[in-house]
Design a protein that fits this description.
Number of helices of chain A: 8
Number of helices of chain B: 10
Mean pLDDT of chain A: 88
Mean pLDDT of chain B: 89
Largest sheet of chain A: none
Order of helices and strands of chain A: HHHHHHHH
Structural class of chain B: mainly alpha
Distance between the termini of chain A: 33 Å
Distance between the termini of chain B: 31 Å
Radius of gyration of chain B: 18 Å
Number of strands of chain B: 0
Low-confidence stretches of chain B: none
Strand content of chain A: under 5%
Oligomer: heterotrimer
Largest interface: A-C, 44 and 35 residues
Shape of chain A: globular
Number of domains of chain B: 1
Number of strands of chain A: 0
């Protein structure tokens, strides 16, 4: 009885139905939060005295950059669950998060590049943060490519799980080494001066958007998981029953 | 003969049977190095500035090139499956195989690097630093490329995929090595960085074979 | 705190002098999030449809 909550996760059908409800909640909630945060940030937050209006990109860039990294953490939790408890849902979560993580990382890189043009005068600099974000994108890409190359989904899941865990051990080392490398080659002259305080009217919308993007990521991952679940379980009786009911 | 000796002897015999596998990466390395002055400039001052980094990157690529099939033939022949039945941990046997690979396929690349350094007019002390850096850093790189090869064992067409997967994980090694080269060029102390690089290699040599053995187990389990 | 920072809607759209940087970023974001949502829906529907076809084929086989 005590373990029921845990075993439920092993049931694809239970997850599929529950995720459908969660997805609906997450979808509308995130839409509301992001709409409020973005309109507030774009129209009502005060102009930055140093960067002018270009700073308004942070209302997309910062949440997306947070998520790019948070999703790797979520993926490594799934990898542990998969390798230790052999839970199928965890594998599907890993597969979904890899794709969404790549999308968010690419969005963070793209928005960062566009932001860089007015602030640094160039789209790309080999700054420590940009470089480690780029490496992160390559890692997500590696996971997607590896999975795509293996035909048996169970085998692909385990192999990807190993790569995820090797990556999670390496990521902090990569991050620190890249930071160190950056100081080695040139003093970071292009770094943004950290402002001591951000007025509340600037950071409240940012906070709302961060929350909103976290929830939209959950929405997207759940949606993708349900789609993958149907495709993988297409021979099982519960999917057939589901289709008959519709 | 112990299992260890038999495995090493087999690797040696295989390498002798296929000398092309040893020669081709060296050939590739020398070709890439010859392309540098052709693409950039024959001016020896500018070459000396980037030469050591170019040799380092070319070696990295050559190393990836020759580790692509590290486990592939043993996997399809069923030799790896036999490894499971020896009374030794698989990670230990994998480590042995990686060591043999380093000695037979990576060491020649390092030994050739002074010739590359002369071709790109890298100053003597920097070229010595480059040589030592490679000696210290390549064990870690060999381990990681072995992991790439093991992870892609079940792929239908692995090809370059192992290299694409593992290159991002090379970053710390590449960065530390570039630090050594930069310091060697200004003539400052390189020993602390070399020690750090060595520590990374030792840690990889201990931990990565475990991941490799896991990957091999998964792929053997999935194939039948 | 809740004061509109621009004098007019055109000034808002212009977002001088950085409108050409800010707006494309948000359009890109909208495109990516919308695209992913759409892709999920399409993939889900395709999965369900293929199961449906499978069932129909099975029933025809039985009769």
């Amino acid at each position: 009885m005590r373990w029921r909550w845990f075993h439920q996760w092993g049931s694809p059908r239970w997850f599929y139905e529950r995720a459908g409800r969660w997805q609906l909640v997450c979808g509308w909630l995130s839409l509301g939060l992001i709409a409020v945060g973005t309109i507030w940030g774009l129209g009502f937050a005060p102009v930055d005295y140093q960067q002018g209006n270009s700073y308004r990109i942070i209302y997309l860039h910062v949440p997306v950059a947070f998520l790019a990294q948070a999703m790797y953490a979520a993926m490594s939790v799934s990898a542990v669950v998969l390798l230790v408890w052999k839970m199928k849902i965890a594998d599907i979560a890993m597969q979904s998060i890899a794709v969404m993580g790549l999308a968010f990382t690419a969005l963070a890189l793209g928005s960062g590049a566009v932001w860089g043009k007015p602030t640094w005068g160039t789209y790309w600099v080999w700054d420590a943060r940009l470089t480690s974000m780029l490496i992160l994108a390559f890692l997500y890409l590696a996971l997607i490519g590896l999975r795509a190359s293996i035909r048996d989904p169970d085998q692909a899941g385990k192999v990807c799980g190993i790569l995820v865990l090797v990556g999670v051990v390496n990521l902090p080392i990569i991050k620190y080494s890249v930071e160190w490398w950056n100081t080695l080659h040139q003093p970071a002259s292009l770094k943004l001066t950290e402002k001591p305080t951000m007025p509340a009217s600037m950071w409240i919308p940012l906070l709302i958007n961060i929350l909103g993007y976290y929830i939209v990521a959950a929405y997207l991952v759940l949606g993708s998981m349900r789609a993958i679940l149907v495709a993988r379980e297409r021979r099982s009786s519960w999917v057939r029953e589901l289709v008959r009911r519709v | 003969m112990s299992i260890e000796k038999r495995i090493l002897a087999r690797e040696l015999w295989l390498a002798a049977a296929r000398p092309g596998d040893i020669v081709k990466p060296i050939w590739f390395l020398l070709l890439v190095i010859s392309m540098v002055p052709l693409a950039l400039t024959p001016d020896s001052d500018s070459l000396a500035e980037i030469g050591s980094a170019m040799i380092w990157v070319a070696t990295l690529l050559a190393l990836l090139l020759n580790s692509e099939h590290l486990f592939q033939s043993d996997f399809s022949d069923g030799i790896l499956e036999q490894y499971l039945f020896f009374d030794r941990p698989l990670a230990w046997l994998v480590g042995l195989k990686l060591t043999a690979h380093w000695l037979l396929h990576v060491l020649p690349l390092i030994l050739i690097s002074p010739i590359g350094a002369v071709m790109l007019s890298v100053p003597g002390d920097v070229s010595i630093a480059l040589f030592i850096t490679m000696l210290v850093a390549t064990p870690a790189l060999t381990c990681f490329s072995g992991l790439g090869a093991a992870l892609t064992l079940g792929s239908s067409r692995s090809g370059i995929l192992g290299a694409l997967i593992m290159l991002p994980l090379f970053v710390p090694v590449v960065v530390l090595a570039s630090g050594v080269l930069v310091r060697a060029m200004d003539g400052s102390e390189t020993l602390p960085l070399l020690a750090l690089l060595g520590a990374f290699s030792v840690a990889s040599a201990i931990l990565v074979p475990i991941a490799v053995s896991l990957a091999i187990r998964v792929n053997i389990g999935g194939s039948n | 705190m809740f004061e509109f920072q621009f004098e007019s809607l055109t000034a808002f759209l212009e977002m001088a002098p950085h409108g050409s940087y800010v707006w494309p970023v948000y359009l890109l974001g909208l495109g990516v999030l919308g695209g992913l949502t759409w892709a999920n829906i399409v993939q889900h529907r395709r999965g369900l449809r293929s199961v449906k076809r499978q069932i129909e084929r099975g029933e025809k086989h039985e009769s």
